[in-house]
Design a protein that fits this description.
single chain; mainly alpha; 7 helices; 49% helix; 0% strand; rod-shaped
């Protein structure tokens, strides 16, 4: 540190005489003391305003850029068509087999109950009576057991277990009966004739005899 100070003073003495440097330092100390003593009297209250000239820049007028209008195609919203769910077809109710009943006594040589109903044009009732006679024949021949509330499908299955050959006949008879009494289709003479042929076929299968219906 002392070496640096010595070299600095020696370099300064080569440029400026040392007595002059001491005089300048003394004058600076006196000025500093006077300024400190009279502070803040020598500080101006209002500083002069420096007004700088306004620089007016020329206005630059840029040309207007006209962009072309882009016409976008209209997006049409797709119409949502709600479809009603398809109605489920209700299963057909079980077809009940009419309970067999004894036919009223007919005069000798007269028509049976089913034939009498068919002659009167009551074909639906005639079909029902012929089905009852077929059930009565199955019970008499002990092909099925008498049971209340038996459906045509149950009757066909029970009879087919003992006599498999009667399944097509009973199935066809059950279809005719359910079409007329449950589907409410109009009965015709053709239905009665078909039912009469099925009854005769069942009698031939069970007894081997020709039916006199």
């Amino acid at each position: 540190m002392s070496r640096w100070w010595t070299e600095t003073v020696a370099a300064l003495g080569d440029v400026v005489p040392l007595p002059l440097v001491a005089l300048l330092l003394l004058a600076a100390a006196l000025l500093t003391a006077l300024a400190w003593h009279s502070f803040p009297a020598w500080v101006p209250r209002r500083l002069p305003r420096i007004r700088l000239p306004r620089l007016r820049l020329p206005r630059l007028r840029l040309p207007r850029l006209r962009l072309p209008r882009l016409r976008l195609p209209r997006l049409r919203r797709p119409r949502m068509r709600l479809r009603r769910p398809a109605r489920r077809r209700r299963p057909d109710p079980p077809v009940r087999v009419p309970a067999p009943r004894a036919a009223p006594p007919a005069p000798v040589g007269g028509p049976a109950t089913a034939d009498r109903l068919a002659a009167e044009g009551r074909y639906a009732e005639a079909v029902r009576e012929r089905l009852r006679d077929m059930v009565r024949l199955l019970v008499t021949r002990q092909v099925v057991e008498p049971r209340a509330g038996l459906t045509v499908t149950e009757l066909t299955e029970a009879a087919a277990r003992t006599r498999p050959a009667v399944r097509p006949t009973l199935h066809a008879a059950g279809m005719i009966f359910s079409d007329l009494w449950y589907a409410q289709r109009p009965a015709t003479a053709g239905h009665d004739q078909r039912m009469r042929a099925l009854a005769a076929e069942l009698r031939r299968e069970l007894t081997g005899e020709e039916d006199a219906w």
